[in-house]
Amino acid sequence: MTQRPAAAAGDKRRVASGLWQVTENDLESIAIGAGILGTGGGGNPYIGQLRARQAIRQWGPVTVLAPEELPDDASVVCVGGIGAPTVGIEKVRDLQSYYALRAIEDYTGATATALISNEIGGSNSVEPLIPAAKAGLPVVDADGMGRAFPEFQMKTFFVYGVPCCPMAIADEKGNSAIIRETVSPVWAERLARALTVQMGCVACYAVAPMTAEQVRQTAVPRTLSLARELGDAVIRARNEGDDPRAAIFGTCPGKTLFCGKVVDVERRTAAGFARGTLTIDGLDSCAGERMVIEFQNENLIARRDGAIVCTVPDLICAVTIDRGEPVTTELMRYGLRVAVLGFPAPALWAAPQGLAVAGPRAFGYDTDYVPLAV
Amino acid sequence: MFIGVDVGGTNTDAVLMDGSNRDGPNLLTGAKVPTTGDVTSGIVNAVSELLSGQPGPPSVRAVMVGTTHFTNALLERRSLAPTAVIRLALPATQLLPPLVDWPAPLRDAIGGLTYMIPGGHEFDGREIAPLGRPELQAAVQDLRRRGIAAVAVSGVFSPVNPSHETEAAALIQEAAPELRVCLSHENGRMGLLERENAAALNASLGNVAVQTVAGIKDALAALGIDAPLFMTQNDGTLMDADYAVRFPALAISSGPTNSMRGAAYLSGVRNGIVVDVGGTSTDVGALTNGFPRESDVAIQLAGVRTNFRMPDMLSISLGGGSVVSGGSVMEPEPLRIGPESVGYRLTEQALVFGGDTLTTTDLAAAAGRARVGSPHRVAALEPQLVNRGLAEIQRRVETAIDQVKLSRYDVPVILVGGGSILLGDALSGASAVLRPEHAGVANAIGAASAQVGGQVERVYSLESIGREQAVADCSAAAVARAVAAGAAAESVAVVEVDETPLTYVPSSATRVRVKAVGNLALI
Lengths: 374, 523
Fold this sequence. Notes:
The structure holds 2 protein chains of 2 kinds. Chain A is of the alpha+beta class. Chain A is built from 13 helices and 16 strands. The two termini of chain A are 32 Å apart. Mean pLDDT of chain A is 90; it is low at 1-18. By secondary structure, chain B is of the alpha/beta class. Chain B is built from 14 helices and 23 strands. Chain B has a 9-stranded mixed beta sheet with strand order 3-2-1-4-9-10-21-23-22, sandwiched between helices. Chains A and B meet through helix 3, helix 4, helix 8 and strand 10 of A and strand 23 of B.
């Protein structure tokens, strides 16, 4: 087990209020935290973690800026990966997000002064670190989801009025394209997916720069720090033999929705998305009860003995009971002993504009959002 | 008759069985001898002892061996061939070059030479770039100059389209016929880095594999045994000796699988927990329908990440050779058990065998659980120390069982391995504690009763091929692989089909994995 550096070393990194540097040592923690915030989606973190490590080794650590620390004239570019995780373990991503960044700078004539993650959940959390290390840019301690979602348009930036176009999309071969204008973010997603398939299913995109004010108004703040702190807490709990769940809740308030053994995972594919149902039979204090979770890449609705206990956009995360290891829907299997954790959604999602894009009805469920009481 | 051999870190076990694989073999006799430094002479000793009680020369039809040769070679970084890795991928994948996540000492031990050249395929079979023949030729010239003996070739999406790997192999062999060439698509599943790592391990283990197989064959010949040799793979199936020479990495860590298969065979339990107490460590794993539950996480071999299918096991540093210190009423030192172990020197160094090191086996002997060595040598041990030590051992094993168990319900627990004498007959979490007869040689029995298998994983674009056709194609490839590994064609059956649709892509593509197993083909 990897021993993290002592807390004192972590404190030293905080050069000023909220400002720290992502080094190689933070990547394992970020991967665990991003896995928890990934709510079952977001893919395998290994490749992303390894790429970020190589980038940091090659080009140096990456400075993290709180949104309030951005200069008012900042140009903040959101970068992210788009494609199929199953392809990404084979044709491992290269510098696509860096190429997309350069393409959007070239098209808009703006020079990026910071990068921001589109999605803190799963492997996309570390994507901005790679072009940031190479270009010598800081990353913002915030993202466009505060969790994971399956589709491009499901970002707080776009929900709250940041245009999603122009955007650049790039592959590893030197091909790039600009989506100049679309009538809605959904159309941007459609066009980007079509390009992605032709590009071989592991592309990256970069959206035209946001202003500092737009970031402060529309991004979910402090999420990179949260991912690292969640991972730190889990690793510390493992090393010291403490309960990883208590450590998680000590970092990010939430509650245990259920504890049990996975007894069935039913999967089907619809329009490219892995939909399915996960059935968990209760153990210990939940013995005799059953939880059923419906997922579309991410966990969306949790029912306990038939009654809904948590819905999207609140976060529904499964972690192994003993080690607090987040389990993606892809790796869910019979016999795993998991704790299902619920966390309240970021405020930007719980508001009516957010629910219209990412509430239960947006995913086709005929139910209203009832915020999780913690 | 069949001979099964399992070489562990401490002991080498051998069993003689009769009957066919189909109906389940029948154990005739077993032998257990200490593992030797050179491994091969331990095998000779075990088989000699096994046959010493047999009237006349044995008519052995096959010998199955599970061995730690290859694991040891990697852990000790001994006899590894200078190996280069050539990846066919440019312009893709440059940020993560071959061997990127290997432990530095092992990478250095094989030379760490890597080349990336144009080539490889997309998920739907299109070329990323045409194969870079000039670059490949230059690479071969360069690696010959540097004294490289073996080459691993990995192409992006070679499980979907192996043509660049096979073209590259032809070109390499033409320019440098003396090189050992291992292609990633021949034994790997999806996952470029993991498959490439496996190919590099196979390439670097070439000398060890040739020597090991030749050594075992010579030893068997010297014992008058003229029978085909098979090696056990880490997924619980067999491969013939020639296949093992090509793919030695598949034999790494087959011990735990053999132990679990042997435990299922001996106990008749198909669902339960197997606790294998060895000399240095204890492995705890779950049996599901007679087979070990497989791990979903990437398996690390000597610190190298691979995607082999292996049993989902929990290993704790506790065994029959674990060193015990403190815990005496006369000493202030707290009781300490392991992780140090006297390992295969147990019969020289443990008190009960006349040595001067207090081990867990001495505690078991003092309590009368184990009838080994000379009991009078441990008669003077403090009863409190003996009781506290054995209670601590039991507590650690019970905790491990609880972590591996799939439910809160008690399940049968099968104790195997030479160190199982450390444990009592009641364990919490166990509905029954079974100590099958011959449990001490469960690994060798697992080896002797293994089937021959083949596993293939491919991605199919469902726009060009139907779903059923995709599964049929993958199944045919798995069956062919099982036959190539030594299975009797008529007995091969597909035992596992796993289909995972590719997500986040509107076009329909799917990943299919098929495992086929069959009985050993005997001439």
